[in-house]
Specification:
The chain has 7 helices and 12 strands. With 276 residues, it is an alpha+beta fold. It folds into 2 domains: 5-127, no CATH class; 136-256, Lipoxygenase-1 (Sandwich). Strands 1, 4, 6, 7, 8 and 11 form a 6-stranded antiparallel beta sheet that branches. A 6-stranded antiparallel beta sheet has the order 3-2-5-12-9-10, with no helix packed on it. Strand 2 and strand 3 form a beta hairpin. Helix 4 (51-78) packs across helix 6, helix 4 crosses helix 7 and helix 6 (103-112) packs across helix 7.
Length: 276
């Protein structure tokens, strides 16, 4: 029911692009009127590039704005610094208690009512920052089958290795474990995540070591291993097949997620509002 603005925007923009740039501009701006200035700037910057690049760039920018607004809105609601926001709910949704809404429901409201986002986060009041270099999170839900050792996965983000992890959650016992990795991949988030199964081993009639990857979650956005666009490059077989949870061969599960998981941005409440 609820979905991310970047995904909404991609669907709208993709359909609009079939009708040419004029249709793309009018339909997209109508759907995301609260982000018109962001859209116009990014569209001007990407004119002349491929339409896919235009869509990805603008979608990423809008997703980043939405993330900032969501965190600012949650912050204000949690600290009761929400005078203007409370007034907005009283006027537009009097039967709703905003403090009980989930992140997905708040996000959907921000997409549908851009004016609420402007109340939560006035323009220019927050910038992306990651001073410690660990403000973004990737979770990989995985399990293994042990044969002469547990499977190992190497995790790469945007082509760079960030970790090598032994997976000891026993699939035969029904176990799955969430393996967590942090880093800083820029305001737009990672473009690509790869899970490389590096130590496949089997002996006919004896046993078989395997890795299972159910899903990955990047900055709160989940991507299933068998989702559209995910691929599995099998090293020894020399081929590429559709993504799947079972990694029964040495190879790499590739998640192309450009623009779909922007970095979360936590915004501080301005001091002048904290006395409300």
């Amino acid at each position: 029911m609820w979905t991310r603005s970047g995904q909404i925007f991609l669907a709208v923009a993709s359909a609009s692009l079939l009708g040419g740039c004029n249709a793309f501009t009018s339909v997209a701006q109508e759907r995301i009127s609260g982000y018109a200035s962001v859209f116009e700037t990014k569209f001007e910057e990407t004119v002349g590039k491929t339409t896919d690049k235009v869509v990805a760039t603008v979608s990423s920018a809008i997703g980043s704005v939405l993330n900032r607004q969501l965190h600012a809105l949650k912050n204000k609601l949690a600290t009761s610094v929400s005078g203007a926001i409370t007034d907005w709910f009283d006027e537009h949704l009097p039967a709703v208690n905003p403090e009980t809404l989930t992140d997905e429901e708040l996000e959907a409201l921000l997409v549908e009512h851009p004016e609420l986002g402007k109340l939560a986060l006035p323009e220019g009041s927050c910038d992306y920052s990651c001073p410690e270099g660990d403000c973004q999170e990737i979770i990989i839900r995985a399990a293994g089958e042990n044969y002469s050792g547990w499977p190992k996965m190497r995790v790469l983000v945007n082509g760079k290795r960030i970790a090598t992890q032994t997976v000891e959650a026993n699939r035969a016992a029904g176990e799955m474990e969430d393996y967590v990795f942090t880093g800083d991949w820029g305001e737009a988030g990672p473009d690509e995540v790869k899970v490389f199964y590096i130590n496949d081993y089997a002996r006919e009639g004896k046993g078989d070591r395997n890795l299972f990857v159910d899903w990955i979650q990047v900055n709160g956005i989940r991507f299933q291993s068998n989702a559209d666009g995910v691929t599995y490059e099998r090293t020894n077989e020399g081929d590429t097949i559709e993504g799947q949870a079972l990694m029964g061969w040495k190879g790499t599960l590739i998640f192309p997620i450009e623009g779909q998981a922007p970095a979360p941005v936590v915004c501080e409440v301005p001091e002048e509002e904290s006395t409300i």
